[in-house]
Protein backbone atom coordinates (compact mmCIF):
# COMPACT_ATOMS: atom_id res chain seq x y z
CA UNK A 1 0.00 0.00 0.00
CA UNK A 2 1.25 3.48 -0.87
CA UNK A 3 1.71 6.10 1.84
CA UNK A 4 2.18 9.86 1.47
CA UNK A 5 2.56 12.70 3.95
CA UNK A 6 0.13 15.37 2.76
CA UNK A 7 0.36 18.06 5.46
CA UNK A 8 2.23 19.00 8.61
CA UNK A 9 1.47 21.95 10.87
CA UNK A 10 1.79 23.31 14.36
CA UNK A 11 -1.30 24.88 15.92
CA UNK A 12 -1.25 27.11 19.01
CA UNK A 13 -4.46 28.19 20.71
CA UNK A 14 -4.90 31.00 23.23
CA UNK A 15 -7.65 32.70 25.14
CA UNK A 16 -6.70 35.72 23.04
CA UNK A 17 -3.93 36.55 20.58
CA UNK A 18 -3.35 40.26 20.07
CA UNK A 19 -3.45 40.03 16.29
CA UNK A 20 -2.59 43.70 15.89
CA UNK A 21 0.95 42.88 17.09
CA UNK A 22 1.53 40.61 14.10
CA UNK A 23 2.79 43.13 11.58
CA UNK A 24 5.62 42.91 9.07
CA UNK A 25 7.91 45.24 11.04
CA UNK A 26 7.41 43.29 14.28
CA UNK A 27 7.96 39.90 12.60
CA UNK A 28 11.14 41.23 11.02
CA UNK A 29 12.34 42.69 14.32
CA UNK A 30 12.02 39.35 16.18
CA UNK A 31 13.69 37.47 13.32
CA UNK A 32 10.72 35.56 11.93
CA UNK A 33 10.70 37.37 8.58
CA UNK A 34 13.60 38.35 6.37
CA UNK A 35 13.29 41.62 4.43
CA UNK A 36 11.47 41.26 1.12
CA UNK A 37 10.40 37.69 1.93
CA UNK A 38 6.63 38.23 1.76
CA UNK A 39 4.74 36.72 -1.17
CA UNK A 40 1.34 37.55 -2.69
CA UNK A 41 -1.51 36.41 -0.46
CA UNK A 42 -0.09 38.04 2.66
CA UNK A 43 -2.71 39.98 4.63
CA UNK A 44 -2.34 42.11 7.75
CA UNK A 45 -5.76 42.99 9.16
CA UNK A 46 -6.91 43.81 12.69
CA UNK A 47 -8.56 40.44 13.38
CA UNK A 48 -6.81 38.15 10.91
CA UNK A 49 -3.26 37.80 9.62
CA UNK A 50 -2.02 35.60 6.77
CA UNK A 51 1.71 35.46 6.15
CA UNK A 52 2.90 33.77 2.97
CA UNK A 53 6.61 33.17 2.30
CA UNK A 54 8.68 30.59 0.47
CA UNK A 55 9.61 29.05 3.84
CA UNK A 56 6.24 28.90 5.57
CA UNK A 57 2.63 30.00 5.71
CA UNK A 58 1.16 31.32 8.93
CA UNK A 59 -2.33 32.41 9.91
CA UNK A 60 -3.28 34.18 13.13
CA UNK A 61 -6.78 34.92 14.43
CA UNK A 62 -7.72 35.91 17.99
CA UNK A 63 -7.89 32.32 19.30
CA UNK A 64 -5.46 30.45 17.05
CA UNK A 65 -2.10 30.52 15.29
CA UNK A 66 -1.36 27.95 12.56
CA UNK A 67 2.12 27.52 11.10
CA UNK A 68 2.68 25.36 8.01
CA UNK A 69 6.35 24.95 7.04
CA UNK A 70 7.30 24.41 3.41
CA UNK A 71 9.61 21.44 2.84
CA UNK A 72 9.55 18.30 4.95
CA UNK A 73 13.34 18.04 5.48
CA UNK A 74 13.71 21.43 7.17
CA UNK A 75 10.26 21.57 8.79
CA UNK A 76 11.28 20.71 12.33
CA UNK A 77 14.07 23.28 12.55
CA UNK A 78 11.90 25.97 10.99
CA UNK A 79 8.95 25.32 13.30
CA UNK A 80 11.17 25.44 16.37
CA UNK A 81 12.84 28.66 15.25
CA UNK A 82 9.67 30.53 14.29
CA UNK A 83 7.50 29.35 17.18
CA UNK A 84 10.20 30.00 19.79
CA UNK A 85 10.70 33.56 18.58
CA UNK A 86 6.97 34.32 18.59
CA UNK A 87 5.92 32.80 21.92
CA UNK A 88 8.99 34.12 23.75
CA UNK A 89 8.24 37.59 22.40
CA UNK A 90 4.66 37.24 23.72
CA UNK A 91 5.07 35.49 27.11
CA UNK A 92 2.01 37.24 28.55
CA UNK A 93 -0.34 35.65 26.00
CA UNK A 94 -2.75 33.24 27.75
CA UNK A 95 -1.83 30.10 25.79
CA UNK A 96 -4.29 27.24 26.19
CA UNK A 97 -2.93 24.42 24.00
CA UNK A 98 -0.54 23.52 21.22
CA UNK A 99 -0.34 20.64 18.81
CA UNK A 100 1.91 19.20 16.14
CA UNK A 101 -0.09 17.59 13.37
CA UNK A 102 0.75 15.18 10.55
CA UNK A 103 -1.74 13.99 7.94
CA UNK A 104 -0.94 10.86 5.93
CA UNK A 105 -2.79 9.23 3.06
CA UNK A 106 -2.85 5.45 2.84
CA UNK A 107 -3.77 4.37 -0.69
CA UNK A 108 -4.98 0.85 -1.20
CA UNK A 109 -4.11 0.33 -4.90
CA UNK A 110 -6.61 -1.74 -6.90
CA UNK A 111 -8.34 -3.12 -3.82
CA UNK A 112 -11.67 -1.63 -2.77
CA UNK A 113 -11.37 0.82 0.13
CA UNK A 114 -14.41 -0.85 1.70
CA UNK A 115 -12.47 -4.12 1.90
CA UNK A 116 -9.28 -2.48 3.17
CA UNK A 117 -10.93 -0.50 5.94
CA UNK A 118 -13.06 -3.47 6.99
CA UNK A 119 -9.92 -5.59 7.34
CA UNK A 120 -7.94 -2.91 9.17
CA UNK A 121 -10.58 -1.47 11.49
CA UNK A 122 -13.64 -3.73 11.77
CA UNK A 123 -13.89 -6.45 14.37
CA UNK A 124 -16.28 -9.38 14.29
CA UNK A 125 -16.50 -8.99 18.07
CA UNK A 126 -18.04 -5.53 17.78
CA UNK A 127 -21.71 -5.34 18.84
CA UNK A 128 -22.31 -3.39 15.61
CA UNK A 129 -20.59 -5.87 13.29
CA UNK A 130 -23.86 -7.40 12.09
CA UNK A 131 -25.30 -3.94 11.34
CA UNK A 132 -22.38 -3.10 9.02
CA UNK A 133 -22.12 -6.25 6.93
CA UNK A 134 -23.14 -4.34 3.78
CA UNK A 135 -20.63 -4.41 0.92
CA UNK A 136 -20.51 -0.61 0.82
CA UNK A 137 -19.68 -0.19 4.53
CA UNK A 138 -16.51 1.71 5.35
CA UNK A 139 -14.63 1.83 8.64
CA UNK A 140 -12.23 3.92 10.68
CA UNK A 141 -10.83 4.17 14.19
CA UNK A 142 -9.71 6.57 16.91
CA UNK A 143 -6.83 5.88 19.29
CA UNK A 144 -4.96 7.98 21.84
CA UNK A 145 -2.19 7.59 24.41
CA UNK A 146 0.25 9.68 26.43
CA UNK A 147 3.71 9.99 24.88
CA UNK A 148 5.46 11.73 27.77
CA UNK A 149 6.08 15.29 28.81
CA UNK A 150 2.40 16.11 29.09
CA UNK A 151 1.81 15.33 25.41
CA UNK A 152 -1.01 13.07 24.24
CA UNK A 153 -1.09 11.47 20.80
CA UNK A 154 -4.55 11.50 19.24
CA UNK A 155 -4.86 9.42 16.06
CA UNK A 156 -7.97 9.61 13.90
CA UNK A 157 -8.21 7.21 10.93
CA UNK A 158 -11.01 7.24 8.37
CA UNK A 159 -11.68 6.70 4.67
CA UNK A 160 -11.93 9.77 2.44
CA UNK A 161 -13.14 10.40 -1.10
CA UNK A 162 -12.37 13.45 -3.23
CA UNK A 163 -14.29 14.19 -6.40
CA UNK A 164 -14.02 16.67 -9.25
CA UNK A 165 -16.57 17.17 -12.02
CA UNK A 166 -18.51 14.17 -10.75
CA UNK A 167 -15.48 11.85 -11.00
CA UNK A 168 -13.71 10.31 -8.02
CA UNK A 169 -10.09 11.46 -8.13
CA UNK A 170 -8.91 10.10 -4.79
CA UNK A 171 -9.92 7.33 -2.42
CA UNK A 172 -7.67 6.74 0.55
CA UNK A 173 -7.54 6.25 4.27
CA UNK A 174 -6.49 9.44 6.04
CA UNK A 175 -4.44 9.17 9.20
CA UNK A 176 -4.52 12.36 11.30
CA UNK A 177 -1.85 12.47 14.01
CA UNK A 178 -2.23 15.17 16.67
CA UNK A 179 0.45 15.49 19.35
CA UNK A 180 -1.46 17.62 21.86
CA UNK A 181 -0.12 19.68 24.74
CA UNK A 182 -2.46 21.28 27.30
CA UNK A 183 -0.75 24.55 28.22
CA UNK A 184 -3.25 25.38 30.96
CA UNK A 185 -1.64 22.84 33.28
CA UNK A 186 1.87 24.19 32.63
CA UNK A 187 3.43 26.98 34.75
CA UNK A 188 5.07 28.58 31.71
CA UNK A 189 3.01 28.10 28.56
CA UNK A 190 5.50 29.74 26.21
CA UNK A 191 8.40 27.49 27.24
CA UNK A 192 6.16 24.42 27.21
CA UNK A 193 5.29 25.19 23.58
CA UNK A 194 8.97 25.63 22.72
CA UNK A 195 9.63 22.24 24.31
CA UNK A 196 6.90 20.69 22.19
CA UNK A 197 8.51 21.94 18.97
CA UNK A 198 11.85 20.44 20.02
CA UNK A 199 10.21 17.01 19.70
CA UNK A 200 9.10 17.51 16.07
CA UNK A 201 11.56 14.91 14.71
CA UNK A 202 10.55 12.22 17.20
CA UNK A 203 6.84 12.85 16.57
CA UNK A 204 7.42 12.73 12.80
CA UNK A 205 9.27 9.41 13.15
CA UNK A 206 6.51 7.95 15.33
CA UNK A 207 3.76 8.97 12.91
CA UNK A 208 5.76 7.66 9.95
CA UNK A 209 6.43 4.33 11.68
CA UNK A 210 2.81 3.78 12.63
CA UNK A 211 1.66 4.66 9.12
CA UNK A 212 4.13 2.21 7.57
CA UNK A 213 3.08 -0.48 10.01
CA UNK A 214 -0.56 -0.08 9.05
CA UNK A 215 0.31 -0.07 5.35
CA UNK A 216 2.45 -3.19 5.63
CA UNK A 217 -0.22 -5.02 7.60
CA UNK A 218 -2.88 -4.06 5.10
CA UNK A 219 -0.76 -5.10 2.13
CA UNK A 220 0.29 -8.35 3.76
CA UNK A 221 -3.32 -9.37 4.27
CA UNK A 222 -4.26 -8.79 0.62
What does this entry show, briefly?
This protein has one domain.
Question: How is this structure best described in words?
Answer:
It is built from 5 helices and 9 strands, in the order βαββββαβαβββαα. It has helices at 24-29, 75-89, 113-121, 189-197, 200-220, and strands spanning 2-14, 43-44, 49-52, 56-61, 64-69, 95-107, 141-146, 151-164, 167-182. Strand 3 and strand 4 form a beta hairpin.
Helix and strand topology:
Layout: E1 2-14, H1 24-29, E2 43-44, E3 49-52, E4 56-61, E5 64-69, H2 75-89, E6 95-107, H3 113-121, E7 141-146, E8 151-164, E9 167-182, H4 189-197, H5 200-220
Antiparallel strand pairs: 1-5, 1-6, 2-3, 3-4, 4-5, 6-9, 7-8, 8-9
The number of E-state strands comes to 9
**Secondary-structure element pattern, one letter each:** EHEEEEHEHEEEHH
The parts where pLDDT drops under 50 for at least 5 residues are none
User: Main sheet: which strands, in order across?
Assistant: 2-3-4-5-1-6-9-8-7
> Can you give the mean pLDDT?
92
Individual helix count: 5
Number of domains: 1
Distance between the termini: 10 Å
Amino acid sequence: METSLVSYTVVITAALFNTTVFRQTWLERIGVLAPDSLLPGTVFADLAVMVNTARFQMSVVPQQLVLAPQGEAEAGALVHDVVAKIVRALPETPYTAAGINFAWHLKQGPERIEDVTRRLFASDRSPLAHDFEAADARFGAYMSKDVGGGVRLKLDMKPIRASASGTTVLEATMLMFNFHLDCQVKPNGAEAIVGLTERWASFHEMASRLTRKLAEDGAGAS
